[in-house]
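Request: Mind sharing a record?
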Amino acid sequence: QVQLVESGGGLVQAGGSLRLSCAASERTFTSYAMGWFRQAPGKERDFLAAITWRGTRTYYADSVKGRFTISRDNAKNTLYLQMNSLEPEDTAVYYCAGNSKYSGGTYLPTRSHEYDYWGQGTQVTVSS
């Protein structure tokens, strides 16, 4: 059972940057496609970005394309989300997620039900 723990959230002014990390407890993480989602109060959980197990392919939601970058360091069992040019609308709880079904493949899942491992979330607040 892989456990995921996010960190790096906090309060930042509009236009600022944050880098989120997601540490995995098991080496099997290295074969999983991984993703980032976020959920604002009263809203559904939204897909942000996904990355294949080798990190060779990525995919972004239009809302964050060009501002956010997903990456991973399999040697450290860690997933990252670099967030630049943050806006108040980016305020939400951010979650990392792992997909074991397509382990070792090139498919990039974008829907929350496709992920079977989730972190507890980290709060990001962007002030105007």
In short: The first strand starts at residue 4 and ends at 7. The two ends are 40 Å apart (CA to CA).
